[in-house]
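Quick question, first post here. What does this chain look like in 3D?
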Amino acid sequence: MRLIIIRHGESEWNRIGRYQCQADAPLSELGERQAQALATRLRSEPIHAIFSSSLQRARRTGEAVAAHHPAVPFTIEPALLEIDHGEWQGLLSSEVVERFGVGLIEWQHHPTRAQMPGGESFSNILKRVLDFRERLCNEFPDQNVLISTHDVVVKILVADALGMDMDRINRIWVTNASVSVIEYGEGMPYLVSLSEACHLGRLEVARENQKAI
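> Answer (accepted):
Ran it through. Tokens below.
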């Protein structure tokens, strides 16, 4: 299976540095333009199935791609939701630093043992993402599948393919509206591309300008 993974375009909360988690923040104006650029990049890509998180920033990004592939099934998939950061949700990055500084450092450096107050454990998102990946490999063994999802989900899939320690996932940067590709076969998986964003040109958001990660 060839898994084409896209991160959603910039959301309004990405733009202002607010932790969105599972809140349904819309795409920003820039994010809408990024989604269209991404869709143009993928319009000639062979795709047999599209799955998306239900959150509108991911769904609208996936729908932009799907518009060029009208015959391809489009499915909303709960496993592709972003991690639930609990009490961090809705806070600006500066507010998280002020109120939950120690927990933020733990999340950045040791996510597998971090637990945001009222949020989802890393073991839970890890299980739901990898269970879904296994299901895709079984259902689409020789096909191309596209998923439209969120930062942490992309990082988990990349780290899993590379056999990385999951405590190192925050060393991976995933650009908004970027493409990452993993190929799964009978042997080991191969990371073909990571956070490819050439299609964005000047629409790309620099890492330094996105704080709520």
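Residues 2-209 form a domain with the Rossmann fold fold (CATH 3.40.50.1240).
The mean pLDDT is 95.
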